[in-house]
């Protein structure tokens, strides 16, 4: 992890001998907090993610997230600027310094459009979705899976290009399960680390003899595409009502009919959101379908102009 030093004093923190001014809190989750800080040395804004580590396992998990950032240097994956571990009494905090994107997440954009009773154009959906797929392809091609892909884990830059973030749930793409104990352990892990309304069906009830692979991300990818098209994930409302998401995901979800989008885009969504993981496409196949779709979307945009 290097010899980075973290110091907190009078609203400043120091990481790798560079000072950052605390500006405001950006958000918090179950295990972490995110603050907006400004670099004294360069005047740039950054997001400082502070992960609470209660034990040695938490520390290993935090350092694994750091390692995942180092493995991938891709324009559609959020880079890590610096990191350190800070001892706080019997506990530790892992600090990850990340770029700050002022536009926020894909979910912020979807929510804003929904509040305006508006929706994304097909051309824009395809542009953003293509970038997400490229980021996933980079992850899958190195033998890993994201495991928690969702609109709140996709940032948008000023050019509307997406960056995948929150790599804390990433692990090896293929996980071989050979007995019921391993199956239950993986199921419990997924319940803690994979957001329920974007979690693949095979992670709700893990079979005692199976191989879980990176196509869990393809299911989540379909849920993200659905969210961009219809303003919410396909299982968001089921979860909010308290109904069983585990039961709902066992069947292929019917795609709502809408004149807003082409039949080709609807077919792409249907081909991704397949309950049986063995019938789900891999990311190169999704990218191939996108390549066929994009000229259609460009032609539709030209016709409307």
What is the count of distinct domains? 2
Judging from the principal axes of the Cα atoms, what is the shape? globular
Total beta strand runs: 13
Mean pLDDT: 91
CATH architecture of the largest domain: Orthogonal Bundle
Helix content: 25-40%
**Percent range for β-strand residues:** 15-25%
The gyration radius over C-alpha positions equals 20 Å
Please identify the oligomeric state. single chain
CATH domain topology of the largest domain: Transferase(Phosphotransferase), domain 1
Cα distance, first to last residue? 54 Å
CATH class of the largest domain: Mainly Alpha
Structural class: alpha+beta
What is this structure's SSE topology?
Layout: E1 7-9, E2 12-15, E3 18-28, E4 32-39, E5 45-53, H1 56-71, E6 82-88, E7 91-99, H2 106-115, H3 122-141, E8 144-145, E9 154-156, E10 162-164, E11 171-172, E12 175-177, H4 180-193, E13 210-212, H5 215-230, H6 236-240, H7 245-248, H8 263-272, H9 283-304
Antiparallel strand pairs: 1-2, 2-3, 3-4, 4-5, 5-7, 6-7, 8-11, 9-10, 12-13
Helix pairs in contact: 3-5, 3-9, 8-9
Describe the structure in your own words.
38% of the residues lie in helices and 22% in strands. By secondary structure, it is of the alpha+beta class. It has 2 domains: 7-99, Phosphorylase Kinase, domain 1 (2-Layer Sandwich), CATH 3.30.200; 106-304, Transferase(Phosphotransferase), domain 1 (Orthogonal Bundle), CATH 1.10.510.10. The strands form 4 sheets. A 7-stranded antiparallel sheet has the order 1-2-3-4-5-7-6. It has a two-stranded antiparallel ribbon with strand order 8-11. Strand 3 and strand 4 (32-39) form a beta hairpin. The protein is globular, with a radius of gyration of 20 Å.
């Amino acid at each position: 992890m290097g010899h980075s030093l973290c110091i907190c004093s009078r609203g400043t923190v120091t990481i790798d001998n560079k000072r950052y001014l605390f500006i405001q809190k950006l958000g918090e989750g179950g295990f972490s907090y995110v603050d907006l800080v400004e670099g004294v040395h360069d005047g740039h804004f950054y997001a400082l993610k502070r992960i609470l580590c209660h034990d040695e396992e938490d520390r290993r998990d935090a350092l694994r997230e750091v390692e995942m950032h180092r493995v991938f240097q891709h324009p559609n994956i959020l880079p890590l600027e610096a990191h350190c571990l800070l001892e706080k009494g019997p506990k530790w905090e892992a600090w990850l310094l990340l770029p700050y994107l002022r536009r926020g997440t894909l979910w912020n954009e979807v929510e804003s459009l929904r509040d305006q009773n508006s929706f994304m154009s097909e051309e824009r959906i395809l542009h953003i979705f293509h970038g997400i797929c490229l980021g996933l392809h980079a992850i899958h091609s190195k033998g890993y899976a994201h495991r928690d892909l969702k609109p709140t884990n996709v940032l948008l830059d000023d050019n509307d290009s997406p960056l995948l973030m929150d790599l804390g749930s990433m692990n090896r793409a293929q996980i071989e399960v050979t007995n019921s104990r391993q199956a239950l352990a993986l199921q419990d892990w997924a319940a803690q680390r994979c957001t329920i309304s974007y979690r693949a069906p095979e992670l709700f009830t893990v079979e005692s003899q199976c191989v879980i692979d990176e196509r869990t991300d393809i299911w989540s990818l379909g849920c993200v595409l659905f969210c961009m098209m219809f303003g919410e994930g396909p299982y968001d409302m089921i979860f909010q009502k308290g109904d069983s998401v585990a039961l709902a995901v066992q069947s292929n979800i019917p795609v709502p009919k809408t004149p807003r989008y082409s039949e080709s885009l609807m077919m792409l969504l249907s081909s991704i959101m397949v309950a049986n993981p063995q019938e789900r496409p891999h990311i190169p196949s999704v990218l191939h379908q996108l390549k066929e779709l994009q000229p259609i979307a460009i032609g539709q945009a030209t016709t409307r102009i």
